[in-house]
Design brief:
With 508 residues, the chain is mainly beta. It is built from one helix and 35 strands.
């Protein structure tokens, strides 16, 4: 009997440990690789929704869904119709800045800044997958990075704004302001109020306090925001108050997230961390979702600003990010189960996949500034067909371009291309693209009536690209056009232009 009891106890112990192991998850950073800056996240029940900036790419503001903060699937885009807005004439680095997502009484809200134009706006949806409403602009919200906070039946907009009386004491002097919003009419009420002037300590001339959020926990209201600018001095700081309208007191040990003090020569650095939002995980613990970058040299990076995660601990009722002794880690273990989503493309770690163009475009594929539905078609036999346009990606229009984010420091992409140029000014191929003045273009064309492959580079003149190399093609019917993206490529965003590609495109 004693032996049986011992075996039974050991069996229970083994089963218990297997169960604990099965409930663990490795959160791999970045959780969203590639060009996914300015993250905002909410939890609704057991579901998580994440949005990011897209600048002047279209469609704008992807909506990602997850059950475990690791596996994300794109379910839609907030700006999906040209009737909502376009970005024609804008540089690719302008457009939509810093969206924030919120949920209240069965309605989803996204606030965002359309920079250089009408400014801040709000859109709503009953289903986060869409469709989302046309934007309602908020002319009284003067600044950038608006987010919403709901308190009972009241709503507030919190945002980066001008210094007091619009008089800067130094370069980068900004404020955080709050103004009430009618949640039904989506119109502001009353006057704006300053919550934070400058930053944590005005005497130290803090710069670019932005990306603010307010959350309530127990009896405290926490206002947290990025400080220091979006480059290597980027940080996150926190304040608290007994009222959403303040006064707010800064945490004495700010910043609560910073990578700027770490050795610059460390291996595989993660830098520029900030622009965070807190969310409760499936285990009931607090986590922070934020942006950071993976430079390959100095402050140069070719995967854009990406979305990361770190655990948060609470010290004396203050939230403090807990990245570890050497800063933000490339992975964290957590005690809750992993939930993979059917049909979701991988977003973190090492991966490869093939996109097909037989039915519909993957929602992560992007156009420049707007979508021209008459310019492309899809079929199982021919894949994606793009019509030639006179515009190029060096200009400010809507060229024949469909792109996808570069998600790895090392990687390659390829597509089958069926294209026969009729004149020397007709080209089609792949572009590794950062912006209008920084890209490489591998393309097919003709020279003196004979097929040729060319490697072109952007210049300051949008009408003239620099020819770096060329080679004759043995056959005008050659189908394969590919480009590699080694670590250290000086182009950052990694968008590939594909004109008349075949039925599939591979990236890895």
């Amino acid at each position: 009997m004693k032996i049986k009891a011992l075996l039974f106890t050991c069996t229970l112990f083994l089963l218990h440990n297997v169960a604990v192991f099965a409930q663990s998850i490795e959160l791999v950073n970045p959780i969203m690789t590639g060009f996914y800056p300015d993250p905002s996240v909410i939890r609704v029940g057991t579901d998580y929704y994440l949005v990011n900036s897209t600048f002047s790419y279209f469609p704008g503001i992807p909506v990602m869904h997850s059950k475990d903060l690791k596996n994300w699937k794109q379910i839609g885009n907030v700006i999906s119709r040209p009737s909502q807005m376009t970005f024609m004439g804008d540089r690719m680095t302008r457009g939509l800045f810093a969206p924030a997502i919120e949920h209240h009484n069965g309605t989803f809200y996204v606030t965002c800044t359309l920079i250089d134009h009408k400014g801040n706006f709000v859109v709503t949806a009953k289903n986060p997958a869409g469709p989302w409403s046309d934007p309602i602009f908020l002319p009284e919200v003067k600044g950038i990075d608006p987010s919403l906070f709901f308190e009972g039946d009241k709503a507030y907009v919190i945002y980066n704004s001008d210094p007091p009386n619009n008089v800067s004491l130094y370069s980068g002097h900004r404020t955080i302001k709050i103004i009430e919003l009618d949640p039904v009419k989506l119109q502001t009420v009353g006057e704006a109020k300053i919550l934070v002037n400058g930053g944590v300590d005005l005497s130290k001339k803090p710069v670019w306090i932005e990306g603010p959020h307010i959350m309530k926990r127990n009896d405290w209201y926490y206002l947290y925001a990025a400080e220091g600018g979006t480059s290597v001095n980027h940080t996150e700081v926190v304040f608290r108050s007994k009222s959403p309208l303040g006064p707010y007191v800064p945490y004495e040990n700010n910043p609560i997230l910073s990578q700027r003090e770490l050795p610059k020569d460390r291996k595989d650095p993660i830098t520029s961390a900030g622009h965070a939002q807190f969310v409760d995980g499936p285990d009931g613990q607090t986590y922070a979702i934020f942006l950071a970058v993976r430079p390959y040299e100095g402050n140069h990076y070719n995967t854009g600003r990406e979305t990361f995660i770190v655990p948060v601990i609470w010290k004396d009722e203050w939230p403090v990010m807990n990245p570890g002794p050497d800063g933000v880690q490339y992975s964290y273990m957590a005690k809750f189960p992993e939930v993979k989503q059917p049909g979701a493309l991988p977003q973190s770690g090492n991966f490869a996949y093939t996109l097909t163009f037989d039915k519909q475009l993957d929602p992560a594929l992007l156009f420049m500034r707007t979508v021209d539905s008459t310019n492309f078609s899809l079929s199982k036999a021919k894949g994606l067909t793009l019509k030639l346009k006179p515009e190029t990606c060096a200009e400010l229009g809507n060229p024949a371009f469909i792109g996808r984010r570069q998600q790895h420091l090392y990687g390659s992409t390829e597509t089958e291309l069926t294209f026969s140029a009729k004149a020397e000014n007709e080209t089609a191929g792949l572009v590794v693209f950062q912006d209008e003045k920084h890209f490489y273009y591998l393309c097919k064309s003709v020279e003196k009536g004979k097929p040729v492959v060319q490697l072109l580079k952007s210049t300051d003149d949008p009408k003239n690209m620099e020819l770096l190399a060329k080679a004759p093609l043995k056959s005008a019917g050659a189908k394969c056009c590919c480009a590699s993206m080694p670590r250290g490529t000086p182009t950052a965003s990694g968008f590939r232009r594909m004109a008349k590609p075949g039925p599939c495109s591979k990236t890895r």
